[in-house]
Amino acid sequence: xxxLRKTHTGTFVSPSAHMLPSLKMSLSLRVLLVGASFxxxxxxxxxxxxxxxxxxxxxxxxxxxxxxxxxxxxxLHATTTVQxxxxxxxxxxxxxxxxxxxxxxxxxxxxxxxxxxxxxPYFERALRYEAAKRGVxxxxxxxxxxxxxxxx
Length: 152
Hints:
The chain is mainly α and 152 residues long. The protein is built from six helices and two strands. The protein has a domain at 68-146.
């Protein structure tokens, strides 16, 4: 601790006590600048969305409810195109009646419960296990990735 110094009024203060007003000023200025830069970031950036899939137009006969494919991609945070393609494949199996939609949704909820931030691996493993019990051969993500079409 630095030694105390005596002021002209006879009180003892820390040597850095005279710098406190400027420190408060710089701190408030710093807070103001951080707040201004945070606000400016909203003005400079295009509208960002947490939605991963492309937004559909709500005109006409389209339902405002997300499809199973969109729900899986968004809620399981499919961050790569291969993961999104894998989930589209799962949705296609549901459309072909090879898998039940309620099974896929239940496994999605299970995976989100296990790890809300990155539920995809839990979903993939649990779905492969349950699909195998029902006689549906679902490839692993690694196998799916190695055999996916690189041309898109």
